[in-house]
Design brief:
heterodimer, A: alpha+beta, four-stranded mixed β-sheet, 26 strands, disordered C terminus, B: alpha+beta, three-stranded antiparallel β-sheet, 32% helix, 22% strand, ATP-binding (chain A), magnesium (chain A), ligase (chain A), phenylalanine-tRNA ligase activity (chain A), ATP binding (chain A)
Chain lengths: 557, 500
């Protein structure tokens, strides 16, 4: 869940009133947000780097607010305020408009070289915007939040914002050999080739995470203006030339990526959030993008979509009885402008470009329920009549566990994942003989394979409890995993029972006695006749360890 | 889940006895040999005597004397005992060795002949590593790095004074007070000295002092009853403040006891247990079937254990797979879909299931194929896996508890009603619900309960109505809703014991 950090006083000023921490926490809860932490820059630095470093840092109160992962429209102060103000019916949701420029439209031309690496681009212009320090910071912060979330760390989409007045269109989005790209990147004082930059950024704590996206490609994506000035080398870094500042009045925004749908959503979110500060509020100047096939599109889409949902469907899914008019009002409070039409039971809902998360009627139902207030909904019990059944394997396991404890053995709970060594070398078995399932991306050697026997877990338990008085009598009934090509996924679980008796003397008769007791409980007679059980020497060389004088017993049906 | 901890209380060494029998064996009886001697010495003593000195004189363990003191104390005013503690410096095992054979640095110095010694050879000596650096800093030896066959060590001085050995010998001789505080603390830092606290008793005559203390009986025996001798014998009173002997038994694992309780609650509510005995899942059942898009962060290598072998699921229900693919990439069933290129290869990737909802998806798919539709209530409690590095707050595997109800016309109000009953059975009555986002439920709700100890609302579970984009491709009827909730077993405490 993304966390957005906003200055409390700035937030309250924008909301037009103040709240106590408790009141604001309550408001967040109702709206589906979480006031995660109340802190300040000073507190954060002192927590991470010590009090000394924090000296002189700002002690302005910050609210850290957890935002649902699909609500990109709430990832900045502007969006949070707009959402809450509409929710509290203090303002109406703005209508976002795309307008054509007075002069020539800004053009971004995509060349076919981009196809293999980053084929999509969209663009728009924010005209006559007024930045302040706080607005500027929020703009940068929103880009970062989008990059981390919907853009999947810039792999799917990367955003570039430029001072349009420093550039001259049309712009070209192309791909070139890294050695042929040379420019002065953000916050550097001289020009570097793309190869040099990739090396420099290997040690940059922020940028090094994005290098892999293009690193091994023969061509790197790059955007030029008509004079050959580099706007950006997405998804790594922008050029310093077109950097936006507090004085920038006209912003050219480009989003490039591998996912066209997400690029359009990201552009819509940025321009809807920050067109608030344009001279003509909530209007965005269109830009034209020409694709390699010659087709040209105008962005941002800022599409409004109409959905039709029957009022009784909403009532039936939520479990409330509201009039269609009231439901329309509730939805309007969620930035979904709605009205009752047709036979008086139909609600027409307008989905604004900020709400890309609304993809089905069920999303609309949820918003109606949120505006109604989850905690105002009458709780009822469903009349669903059913007879309960236990899963037979678990039922048997439950019965056996209790009898094992009654027989004086103590239950262990050990991990189902372990190292290769645990199930092979340490037991004197070759790993290839285990039929074990192997994990491809473990973070530590503790999780290389799924266990094929319960024994290692119990032996580790003994090793960790050597200080306990002897004897140790342990058991576990749980699942092991082996490859099995007859199963759809190529592997299956088996339920095993394993018991270990650990003492100064081997005590084979004790573990043998336990086995006899288990078989008695399971109604399996001793001897080879009539499906009885026998004990044979293990084929596995155990090295004479006393604790190994037991076997793992599969529970089969 | 405690990695390798067996059930609580296993083989606890705690044993106590009802009768007031001190722990030391020699003093099991008030008139045991040590107690006898103690009383006789005390009679002759001028004022009193020290328990440690007596033990030393008698050549018995100090604990034996302490036991005798305690048993005499229990008889009333026979003796008076005052607890005293004294501190003493003792040599550690290494300290003893050095007092005997000299410090490591001295041993290194002595092993260097006038013509020098190869450093590599010196390092092989038992005292080599520690002694070398100490001898260097004492400027007793030097290293010539330019020597032909590698660095060579030479003596700098002809002789030296082994202060460490001398000081340790002083301590051994009981003259630790002759050392300066700084010297002692340096030796302690080198783990050659330790300070031990000795608790002794200063014993003196009590107001009812007597050397002839009659033996008190600890147990009533069959012989005493048959002979009637019990009438004349004094009995030791029971000591009710001592712990009883723990029963000899096995134990169930505490977390799995909580699992049993949760199973019981579900069964009481009429829920049928789903099969979950397949830790290995395909991405298809774990994610795609739940309408979780293929670029979702949970599908990242950082969060999920993928398999190298078997890397891919070989069989998938292809008709259903196509419906899922269409719903993701183009929409359908009233949905816009996610509008991206859905890849079968991605869906085939095997993994260790990240939630039991994968098993719920399989169960709902089976339900959808049974015609006509019959309402169900399902539950499961089993292991799930996340690619984490273990620490105090992260586990790579834990148990998920999941409940599912499918029926015609289920509502959010029904979900809340079921949750209220479920949590009431756990002893949690104050609940509230927060809107939330889950990829496969809509509407979604986080469940919070008021924690009396923390004095705040804490999240106890997650819930919602499964999305139509998940249910309709399975073939479930359109007017069937499925409500579901999940919580983690590891985060639960044992439900309160019901009182009749």
């Amino acid at each position: 869940m993304p966390t957005v950090s906003v200055k409390r006083d700035l937030l309250f000023k924008a909301l037009g009133r103040t709240y106590t921490d408790e009141e604001f926490d309550e408001l967040c809860f109702e709206f589906g947000l979480e006031l995660d932490e109340i802190t300040s820059e000073k507190e954060i630095i002192s927590k991470e780097q010590g009090d000394k470093k924090a000296e002189g840092a700002s002690d302005v109160v910050l609210y850290k607010i957890d935002v649902p992962a699909n609500r990109y429209d709430l990832l900045c102060l502007e969006g949070l305020v707009r959402g809450l103000q509409v929710f509290k019916e203090r303002i109406k949701a703005p209508l976002y408009k795309r307008v054509m420029p007075n002069g020539e439209i800004q053009k971004l031309i995509i060349t076919e070289e981009t196809a293999k690496i980053r084929p999509y681009a969209v663009a728009a212009v924010l005209r006559n915007i007024k930045f302040t320090k706080d607005r500027y910071d929020s703009f940068i912060e929103l880009q970062e939040k989008l990059h981390q979330n919907i853009c999947r760390k810039r792999a799917l989409v990367a955003i570039g914002a430029h001072d349009l007045d420093s550039l001259s269109g049309p712009f070209t989005f192309t791909a070139k050999r890294p050695s042929d790209i040379k420019f002065k990147p953000l916050s550097k004082t001289k020009e570097y080739t793309a190869c040099e930059l990739m090396n420099i950024y290997k040690t940059d704590n922020h940028l090094k995470h994005y290098l892999h996206i293009i690193e091994n490609k023969p061509l790197y994506p790059v955007i030029y203006d008509s004079n050959g000035v580099v706007l950006s080398m997405p998804p790594i870094i922008n050029g310093n030339h077109s950097k936006i500042t507090l004085n920038t009045r006209n912003v050219f925004i480009e989003c490039t990526g591998t996912d066209f749908t997400k690029a359009k959503i990201v552009l819509d979110i940025i321009v809807t959030m920050f067109s608030e500060y344009c001279e003509n509020q909530f209007t965005v100047e269109a830009a034209e993008v020409v694709f390699p096939n010659g087709k040209s599109y105008t962005f941002p889409e800022l599409a409004y979509r109409k959905e039709m949902v029957r009022a009784d469907l909403i009532n039936k899914k939520v479990g409330i009885r509201e009039t269609p008019e009231n439901l329309a009002k509730l939805l309007t409070r969620m930035c979904l402008k709605s009205e009752v039409i047709g036979d008086g039971n139909q609600i027409e809902i307008e989905i604004p470009p900020t709400r890309a998360d609304i993809i089905h009627a069920c999303d609309i139902v949820e918003d109606a329920a949120i505006a109604y207030g989850y905690n105002n909904i009458q709780m009822t019990l469903p009349k669903t009549y059913t007879i309960a059944n236990q899963f037979p394997l678990n039922k048997l396991t439950e019965l056996l566990r209790h009898d094992m404890a009654a027989a004086g053995f103590t239950e262990a709970l050990t991990f189902a994942l372990c190292s290769q060594e645990d199930i092979a070398d340490k037991l004197g078995v070759d790993i290839s003989a285990t039929k074990a399932v192997h994990i491809s991306n473990p973070k530590t050697a503790e999780f290389q394979v799924a266990r094929t026997t319960l024994l290692p877990g119990l032996l580790k338990t003994i090793a960790a409890n050597r200080k306990m008085p002897l004897p140790l009598k342990l058991f576990e009934i749980s699942d092991i995993v082996v490859k099995d090509s007859s199963r759809d996924v190529g592997a299956r679980n088996y339920r095993h029972l394993c018991a270990v008796y650990y003492n100064k003397n081997p005590g084979f008769e004790i573990i043998h006695g336990l086995l006899d007791r288990i078989m008695q409980l399971l109604d399996v007679p001793p001897g080879e006749k009539k499906g009885g059980y026998v004990i044979k020497a293990s084929e596995v060389e155990t090295g004479g360890h006393p604790a190994a004088a037991c076997g793992a017993l599969p529970l089969l049906f | 889940m405690a990695a390798h901890a067996p059930g609580a209380g296993s083989g606890s060494g705690c044993s106590g006895a009802g009768r007031d029998t001190p722990s030391a064996p020699g003093a099991a009886m008030a008139d045991g040999p040590v107690a006898d001697v103690l009383l006789r010495r005390l009679e002759a003593a001028d004022g009193g005597l020290d328990s440690a000195e007596l033990a030393a004189e008698l050549g018995v363990e100090h604990q034996a004397v302490v036991g005798a003191v305690k048993s005499l104390q229990a008889l009333g005013e026979i003796i008076e005992a005052e607890l005293r503690s004294t501190k003493r410096w003792e040599l550690t095992a290494e300290g003893e060795e050095i007092a005997r054979e000299g410090s490591h640095e001295a041993r290194v110095f002595r092993s260097v002949p006038p013509e020098g010694l190869a450093q590599s050879e010196l390092m092989r000596l038992p005292s080599g590593k520690v002694g070398f650096s100490k001898a260097m800093s004492n400027k007793w030896i030097r290293v010539d790095k330019s020597a032909a066959d590698g660095p060579r060590v030479f003596r700098v001085v002809d002789s030296m004074e082994d202060d460490v050995q001398r000081r340790l010998q002083l301590v051994r001789g009981g003259q630790a007070e002759k050392l300066a505080e700084k010297e002692r603390s340096e030796l302690r830092k080198r783990k050659l000295l330790t300070e031990v606290t000795l608790k002794t008793y200063w014993v003196s005559k009590g107001s009812a002092f007597s050397t002839s203390v009659s033996k008190q009986e600890a147990e009533l025996s069959p012989e005493m009853i048959s002979s009637g001798s019990w009438r004349d014998r004094p009995f030791k009173p029971y000591n009710f403040s001592a712990r009883g002997v723990l029963p000899d038994s096995g134990h169930l694992h505490p977390l799995l006891k909580v699992r049993t309780q949760f199973r019981q609650i579900f069964l009481e509510m009429g829920f049928t247990e789903m099969p979950t005995d397949n830790f290995i899942e395909s991405s298809f059942w774990n994610f795609d079937a739940l309408f979780q898009p293929q670029q979702h962060p949970a599908r990242d290598q950082h969060d999920t254990f993928f398999l190298q072998d078997p890397a891919e699921a070989l069989q998938l229900p292809m008709d259903y797979v196509h419906r899922v693919k269409r719903t993701h990439s183009q929409g359908g069933y009233g949905s816009q879909g996610y509008k991206y290129t859905w890849k079968l290869d991605e869906a085939r990737k095997n993994l260790l299931r990240t939630h039991t909802t994968a098993a719920s998806a399989r169960a709902l798919y089976r339900l959808a194929r049974k015609k006509p539709f019959t309402p169900i209530k399902y539950f499961s409690i089993d292991r799930v896996f996340r690619n984490e590095t273990l620490d105090a707050t992260h586990l790579a595997e834990f148990h998920q508890i999941e409940g599912v109800v499918a029926d015609h016309g289920l509502t959010l109000g029904h979900l809340m009603g079921v949750l209220r009953e479920f949590f009431t059975k756990l002893g949690i009555t104050q609940l509230r619900f927060k809107p939330a986002y889950n990829p496969y439920t809509e509407p979604s709700m986080e469940v919070f309960s008021y924690h009396q100890g923390l004095k705040k609302w804490v999240e106890v579970g997650n819930s919602g109505l499964f999305r139509p984009e998940m249910l309709l491709p399975m073939g479930l009827p359109e007017n069937v809703s499925v409500i579901a909730w999940g919580l983690s077993l590891e985060r639960q405490r044992e439900p309160p014991v019901p009182r009749p």
